[in-house]
Write a structure and sequence with these properties.
Elements (H helix, E strand, L loop, with lengths): L1 H27 L43 E5 L3 E6 L4 E6 L5 E3 L14 H8 L2 E7 L2 E6 L6 E7 L2 E8 L4 E10 L2 E6 L5 E2 L12 E8 L13 E4 L5 E4 L9 E5 L30 E7 L3 E9 L4 E6 L9 E7 L4 E4 L8 E4 L9 E9 L5 H14 L16 E13 L2 E6 L3 H13 L5 E9 L4 E2 L9 H14 L3 E6 L3 E3 L16 E4 L4 E5 L5 H14 L4 E4 L9 E3 L2 E3 L1 H17 L3 E5 L11 E3 L13 E2 L2 H6 L4 E6 L6 H11 L2 E6 L20 H19 L7 E8 L2 E6 L4 E5 L5 E3 L2 E3 L3 E4 L1
Parallel strand pairs: 23-25, 23-38, 25-27, 27-31, 31-34, 34-35, 35-37, 37-38
Antiparallel strand pairs: 1-2, 2-3, 3-4, 5-6, 5-12, 7-8, 8-9, 9-10, 9-11, 10-22, 12-19, 13-14, 13-16, 14-36, 15-18, 16-17, 17-22, 18-19, 20-21, 23-24, 25-26, 28-30, 29-30, 32-33, 39-40, 40-41, 41-44, 42-43
Helix pairs in contact: 4-5, 6-7, 9-10
Amino acid sequence: MVKKWWGLAIVILIAAALFATHRLGDHQSVKYGIAAAQSSHKAIAVNDGQGCIGPAKEAAGNAAAAVPASFRKAAENSQLALYVEEETAAVAVKDKCSGETWFSYDVGMDQGGAKYSAEIAGYMKSGVSIMTYNKFTAGRRTLLGDRAKMTFEYREDGFKAAIDFAKAKIRFDLVVSLQKGDLLVDIPRSSIEEYNPKLGKPGNNDVRLSEIIPYPFFGSVAHRENGYIVLPDGAGALVRLSEKPSYATGYSAPVYGPDPGYEDTPEFNSRRTVVKPLERVTLPIFGMVHEAGRSGVLVIAEGGTGYATYNYVSRDLQTNLYQSYFSYTYRTQYAQVQSRTNTDQSILSFQKDPNPFDLTQRYVFLSGKQADYVGVAKGFREFLLQTDGLPKRMQEVKERMPMKIDFVNNEIKMGTLGVENVPVTTYGQAQELVKQLKEKGYGDLDVSFKTFVKKERAYRFGVLSQLGGEGAFREAMDYFSSNGVKFSSYADYARSWHDPTSYTASKLNRQDMNVVNENKALYNYLNNPKFYPVLAEQDAGPLKKESVGALALDGFGSSAFTHYDHGTIGYAHEGMAYAEKALKELNESGITTGLYRPDAYLYKYISAYYDTPIASSNLIFIDATIPLVPLVLSGYTEMYSPYMNFSSNDAESILKLIEFGTYPSFVLTGESTYRIKRTASNDFFVSQLGVLEDRIDAYHAAVGEALDQVLGREMVNHTIVDDGIVLVEYDNGLKILINHTDADYKYGNAGIKSKGFVIL
């Protein structure tokens, strides 16, 4: 008997191995390579002069507006005048609408003597700095510190500076030009050259390019009474340009998330201390407002977005100036593992060539009423409109506020004999729960089925027998269709869970591309982006067969990374292009795509925005959290909150949803929440309707009371009236006054209770 079972086990293992090999062979036949378009928007102008009305007044606090004699005029149009200092490549820009002159360093301050070191002074004045690896040690080089050679060529709209860091043997072109009310800074990839003929050869003192930092002190000031910096942290945040900062600190966050392709394989320890991760940066922008209502600037990382890092530095940390700027990564060192059995045996290594992208940074100058954080958001919205980066404006407006319900249908866990399915919500149970919600008067529901497909180790579309099979699934679909319930199937083409698959990408050190999902305390394995369209195509047929016309897609926030693919380097911008390709092909086949926390480059493909950020990272130096994403997207798509199954402060969460114009979302299960304890849904601590019913009622009633009257409308203004008091305005004239404080508040003739709101 024992021999019989051993024989059967061997047959099963051989069959599994053959199946795995077959799948791997199929996937290897998908060659890596996609034409990823670089920025081609240089002809557009976000600020076309329409907002400039009447003669400009001298901006307050800009007494040093006179351009020093060391600067020469490079170009001028009806809105801006551009000046350059040839010794430093520093620029000054005169905004004729606001009267403000913006400098790339503070020309009015004393930078000599003991105040700053020569290195810091050179960094402040140099228009461009670079980070290099000297062997394996990172260091900063400035135009002044390295005495870089520069040759200037003047054009009608600006100038080109041929920059040569001769000591490092790195050169590139810096092109600065005016486009109506915008300033464009370009560093073409074709101009970047590391010209050391011995680079990478044994015994050579290698110096490699790591980062380029254009104009890191542009607009930097020591203090502005009515000014602030707009940070793209999570929902959006403000830091006031106070004379004395609340905290002298810095903050850096990669746009669209970190690149795990360079990182070591993380060690997972269930007993480790978990630090709450920072909110992701999903908008490639920041703003510097010198005087609200008069002068400000929106800065867009337009070309090289997937390689950009946002940086904030408070005054009194390195200098007496507030800094806000982007840096761009061209190369990062990584640990190349030398042993298959001992990952500690490694050497530091680099990719051979710098990342292939054209760096383009756009400065949009804001004046008058546009010069505030709302104007920063609306300026980026205008950029997206001009570059075909937004979905079509909503045409159908619902009568009542919709609500998002995600069902966890199937999960997996490690069982005694391996991975086991964990059915959590059958199709019949989901139908019954939706029926109960409909009977309570919830008219507009957006429902998704979240099904973990064991053989794929991922959430994909599938009709499973353990959930009721084809008949029960079809019955649920018919019920949803006849009762006005919007349905989509949840899927994630970017990640697998628990184990790597044959879709899994490789880091530059050839290890599996795995990351620790801190929220769920388990590993995710990131798929090679070339498989995104393949997986989408695999699902398209079954979706059409079951008459399912919508997907709710998660995971594409992990697309911008560098990886190794059979002798080829896959770059971040190519991963972004593959994500776009998959979504475009789905849309062209008639399948709409709602996305969870999408990055801004995917906005044009969204039918709904799920998991809308309603908070910043709440870092100690932040003065306020603001709704940047709703200010950009309202009127174009429905926005749904993160899951509200649990909140430490329900009253505050409800007010946040109202303030951000965001509809509530919940996740439900038909079975006990205990069943998902050891699965990828282990971060849901309560999920049964019987337990959540009162909470759902409370959220729907309170949020709906405010938002029912602005469904499909654009949020046109958001004002911080006082500490904890905000006023939100919509394009139909409706205003909502919200009180986040613990005390009643008087606003004109309107009184508002603590933790309450009034509609004006």
